[in-house]
Amino acid sequence: MKADLVIKLGGSAITQKDTPYAPKLDVIDRIAEEFAHSWKGVRVLLVHGGGSFGHRAAMKYIDGSGRLKDPRGIAETRHAMHRLTSLLAESFLGKGVPFFAVDPSACFFEESDMEPRLGYSLKPVELALSAGLLPSLGGDVVLSSQGHGRILSGDTIARILALASSAGLLAFGTDVDGYLEDGKPLRRIDRGKLKEIIASTKARANDVTGGMAGKLGEVGEYLSSGGNRALIFNATRPGAIASLLRGEEVEGTYID
């Protein structure tokens, strides 16, 4: 499987994270419109976060170890994510883009309960890409042989897809203009300085930087595993997605 680009749309970009089950339909529609005009001829894998859908449902049932042991909690969390995926599909299909939702729980699974390891088969993604579709996956509940569920984040899915497809760029779309230092986005982070920046970011006590630390952690693992280049950008900014699809540089923070 070979992709040019993996784009992850963060939950903060496409939903109102502080309001339960509140999509940013204007942002979703604009992104779909930009795909309609710019994606043809580009092999793209799309991932989206849970935002105020999946996160809201999961928090009712998740335990201290990060597991979902109540079957109802597993089902409700998955259903919430499907609701958000359906909204994306409706918008993209309405613009003529063949959005094809691939169910992550059918591709990913937890191999061990004592020392959890993520197993996966990406054949459905590969087949969708080969068929000329736009494969899309969202954060989801991963099932284990022990009968519980565990949240698999969209950030992790995006990293795995980018490595498996040898993507030229792994792009994380957020609602801020990149990695901010003193309120201004850094244009570039050298991979040699990434660990120091991750440690500094984790030390800050607010939701935005907490989420950013997680993304930077995935970027670090991606690059150390042979990944090419990563980007953190503002997916709510008009024209950003279109520029990415055209292979242009966009405002944000590149990490290489």
Structural overview:
The strands form four sheets. The protein has an eight-stranded mixed beta sheet, with helices on both faces. Strands 3-9-8 form a three-stranded antiparallel beta sheet. It contains ten helices and 15 strands. β8 and β9 (149-152) form a beta hairpin. The two termini are 22 Å apart. The chain has one domain (5-255): 3-Layer(aba) Sandwich (Carbamate kinase), CATH 3.40.1160.10. It is globular, with a radius of gyration of 17 Å. The model is unreliable at 205-210 (pLDDT under 50). The longest helix has 24 residues, at 71-94. The protein is α/β, with parallel strands linked by helices and 256 residues long.
Descriptors for this entry?
Carbamate kinase, three-stranded antiparallel beta sheet, Asp/Glu/Uridylate_kinase, alpha/beta, 256 residues, globular
Write the layout of secondary structure elements.
Layout: E1 5-9, H1 11-14, H2 25-38, E2 44-48, H3 51-58, E3 67-68, H4 71-94, E4 99-101, H5 104-107, E5 108-110, E6 118-120, H6 123-130, E7 134-138, E8 140-143, E9 149-152, H7 154-164, E10 169-174, E11 180-181, E12 184-185, E13 188-189, H8 194-202, H9 207-224, E14 230-234, H10 240-245, E15 252-255
Parallel strand pairs: 1-2, 1-10, 2-7, 4-7, 10-14, 13-15
Antiparallel strand pairs: 3-9, 5-6, 8-9, 11-12, 14-15
Helix pairs in contact: 2-4, 3-4, 7-9, 8-9
What is the compact description of this entry?
By secondary structure, this protein is of the alpha/beta class. The protein has one domain (5-255): Acetylglutamate kinase-like (Carbamate kinase, 3-Layer(aba) Sandwich). It is built from 10 helices and 15 strands.
